[in-house]
C-alpha cells in the first residue's frame, strides 16, 4: 500500500493555495545556471531544444516541464540546481514550440505527448554516456512521464531507475473543467494568452490554420476542441483528454515511481488523486501533502532549495 505520509509544512505567510502556487512562479529568483543548449533534429523534420547541465556524471536526471513552461521555467531550473549539487548531470527538454524558437510543423505539443519523450530518450541519451536515468516531471510534464511509463510496461530503457512527478493533472477532462471555473480564471487566462499567441504565429506560416475562432475561446474545452485535438489526430477534446490522461496508465507502471501532490492544489480535482490505484500497486507511490499548492512546496532556509527539490533527491537516492 504505497501511500506515503508527507512531511511538508508551508511557510506561515503563504496562507492559502493561490499564494502557495503564485509566489514561487512570480517571486522566486532565477537559479543562475550556465546552460549548454542542443537542438535535436527529429525524424519527422521538426526539432526539440534541449538544455544540458553536464559535469561528468554517469547518472542523468531528465526533467519535463509543465504546460506552457520551458527549460527556463523557475521550478525546472531550481530542480536542476538541486540535482547538480548532488553531482548528477541534468537534461531539461523543451516540448515542441516551448523554446525560444517556434517549432517547424503545423502540430506543436500536447498534454500526453509521450512519443516525443520516447524519441528524445532514443536519440539524445546515448548508452555510452550514462548508466542510470531518472525521469522527473512537473504538472503536464508529470502526466507525460506517467503515461510514458504506463505505455512502456516491460520495454523500458534498461537504464531507467525511477521517476518522480509533481502536481500531476492525472485526469485531463476534470482538470480542464475545474480550471474553467471563475475561481481559476487567473490561471486559465494566463494559459490562454500564451497558447493563442502560438496559434497566431503558426497561422502566419500555415494559411490553412484559421486564427479567427481564438477571439471567442476562453477555456481548454474550446481550445482543445478547435485546435489541440484536430492538430494532433484526435476526434475531439473528449477523445484527446481520455487518451492522454495518465490516470488510465498508472496501473501498468513497473518502475519505482512517486507522485507528490498537494491536497489544496488549485488545478486539480479529486479524480487527479489516484489513491485507489496506489493502494493496489507495489511500485507506484502517492504522497499527498495537506498544503503546497500547484508545483509550490516552498520552504525558506540557507540553501535556497524548496522542500520538493529535497524530497526528489531523497526519493531517487533510494534507487541509485
From TrEMBL:
Domain of life per record: Bacteria
Serine aminopeptidase S33 domain: residues covered: 59-192
Catalytic residue list: 139, 265, 294
GO MF annotations in UniProt: monoacylglycerol lipase activity; short-chain carboxylesterase activity
SUPFAM superfamilies: alpha/beta-Hydrolases
Entries under Pfam families matching the protein: Hydrolase_4 (PF12146)
Similarity comment: family membership: Belongs to the AB hydrolase superfamily. AB hydrolase 4 family.
Name assigned to this protein: Serine aminopeptidase S33 domain-containing protein
